[in-house]
Design goal:
Helices cover about 35% and strands about 30% of the residues. The protein is built from ten helices and twelve strands. Bound molecules: adenosine-5'-triphosphate.
Length: about 290
Amino acid sequence: MRVEAPAKINLFLSVGPRRASGLHEISSVMQAVSLADDLRLDPAAGLGLSVEPPGAVPGGEDNLAMRAARALASATGATDGAALRLAKRIPVAAGLAGGSADAAAALVGLNELWGCGLSRKALEAVGAQVGSDVAFCVRGGTAGIQGTGEILAPLACRLPLWWVIAVPGAALSTAEVYARFDDLGGPGLGDPWEVADALARGDLDRLAASLRNDLEPAAEALLPGLSGAREALLAAGAVGAVQSGSGPAWMGLARDEEHAREVAARAAREFARVEVAQSLSTGARILAQ
Ligand code: ATP
């Protein structure tokens, strides 16, 4: 079985205070995109995972796909095994939720392979125990996120959106970015209404003007090279630019596929890796059985 594990991007990420649980209150708009990992699953006696390229991410029990497999087994009582083969394409520790995407793909694939029969909603609940972005990666599409990430509401996205995803040659730890955010402070929890309305109306210019990420200054403080990311994407012709999650990935918004390819070609000089990606209406999904 082959499962696609799409990355997520944040079109809007406003961050409020840290709660007693240690997690921050957030208000966010997430979108699944066509930049995706590939997870293959075969029946096997035990549970195991291999990673391509080797060493790209931990291969054992620490891998989020393995943690998701264990969580599904304990939620359903499934005792079957599976051999998981993960081809990493999503840049690691870049703010694109690659680990959560793989966990979601494992849940969706193993639910089918093991015949667990859980609904998407039930899989989201299992995913929420594995990591904060896993429930979204199971659901996919475009969604508003509130609370500490546990409240998900689907949002309409009228147009297919084209993004240029630009990644510098460095990684950032999400925990370190949030810790730096606590030191620096932010503008306070904001309202994603402008973004949601622009998405529903298919108004690209308004969407470009309302992209926001409160973690940009914290990521830049840890990785000073990020300070030119917005200007580099705008100079390459993007209509808007914003950091994804805790970074260091940035996204430039393009008008259509052709425009995205032009922007990507120009931006390629400024970043270690540049990808063109389209918004998706799905999350992790089985491509072939
Ligand atoms: P977050 O979801 O916290 O925003 P991120 O998108 O910035 O994280 P990921 O690519 O998910 O980053 O990687 C975060 C960490 O998770 C890395 O240190 C990585 O070693 C670990 N990890 C565990 N399993 C995986 C996986 N399947 N794919 C990617 N990273 C994984």
